[in-house]
Amino acid sequence: MPMEETKQPAESPHAEFNGMPCGKLGEATVSRLVFDGNPLVGNVHSRDLKYVRRLAQTYLTPECLQETLRLAEANGVNTVLGWGEEYVRTYNASGGKMQFIARLSPKLAGDKLADAIKRNIDGGAIAQFTDPCETDELFRASGIAPLAKVVEAAAKSDLPVGVGTWALPVVTACEKAGVPLDFYVKSFHSDGYPTSRPTPPEVRDEFIQETPGYFDNIWCAHPDQVIEAFAAITKPWIATMVLAAGAIDQRGGLTFALETGGADFASVAMFDFLIADHAQTVIRLIPRADQKRTRRWCA
């Protein structure tokens, strides 16, 4: 369902929710800054730091998570991506208006796939996308055909369907094959931060987890190639991992995603104490991005 409290400024590609510029994904109005749901289920990318996941899980109590969602909505973030649907439901049952984009396993088929699609619809998702890690595994093993079949099945429902991936070859194969998807969820961040240096661009596999020496430290193998590819793609793009799991400062990472890269939305995993600053960064950034982007807003 479309969000309430929205308005469309004259001659603007953006709607608005609680001061945050928004785009459209199907019929839904989605904030340009999307809440990556990983923290809602205790998932954190921690490179080689063994204690970080436990630290996050200890901090992120059920009460903290509900307050986190409240702060997100108050600061104009109205959509959660991928994880934590049960926490979103609990929040909305108490008066919240948070939307959810659900994951869909591309490894399912037949009745199991149909059941998963129906669960996403019945659960109130505004859209669904294939799980990025499972998508990349499936593509490496079997090519584009089985992924296309999953997307074709999902496209028969009323929900917009996206393809999630960390690997640019998946995107280019979808475009070449004419897979009937509505949007992409593709990792994207700049290069050169300290923990990326042990894995320089020349040794990286596009399926980054297959790169020798990979230690949960990079999620976009060649960002320049991603920019070039999406320049010719008119489907909406939700950029994920834009701060490289906290290795890139918010202003630099969000500018690179929404201005330099041309993404339509930036998804960021945020602790409660980060939300207001991240939201204000996006709110201030969008007017400048309107002037400097080379890729038009596609949502």
Write a compact overview of the structure shown.
The protein is α/β, with parallel strands linked by helices and 299 residues long. Helix content is 38%, strand content 17%.
Percent of residues in beta strands? 15-25%
The structure class reads alpha/beta
CATH fold field value: TIM Barrel
Task: Round the mean pLDDT to the nearest integer and report it.
Answer: 94
What is the percent of helical residues? 25-40%
Tell me what the structure shows:
- The chain is α/β, with parallel strands linked by helices.
- It has one domain: TIM Barrel (Alpha-Beta Barrel).
- Helix content is 38%, strand content 17%.
- It has ten helices and twelve strands.
- It has helices spanning 52-59, 62-74, 85-93, 110-122, 132-142, 144-155, 168-177, 223-230, 250-260, 275-292; strands at residues 6-7, 15-17, 20-25, 28-31, 33-36, 79-81, 99-104, 127-130, 161-165, 183-187, 237-240, 265-268.
- An eight-stranded parallel barrel has the order 5-6-7-8-9-10-11-12, surrounded by six helices. It has a four-stranded antiparallel β-sheet with strand order 1-2-3-4, covered by helices on one side.
- Strand 11, helix 9 (250-260) and strand 12 form a beta-alpha-beta unit.
- The mean pLDDT is 94.
Features:
single chain, 12 strands, alpha/beta, TIM Barrel, 299 residues
Please give the structural blueprint.
Blueprint: E1 6-7, E2 15-17, E3 20-25, E4 28-31, E5 33-36, H1 52-59, H2 62-74, E6 79-81, H3 85-93, E7 99-104, H4 110-122, E8 127-130, H5 132-142, H6 144-155, E9 161-165, H7 168-177, E10 183-187, H8 223-230, E11 237-240, H9 250-260, E12 265-268, H10 275-292
Parallel strand pairs: 5-6, 5-12, 6-7, 7-8, 8-9, 9-10, 10-11, 11-12
Antiparallel strand pairs: 1-2, 2-3, 3-4
Helix pairs in contact: 2-3, 5-6, 9-10
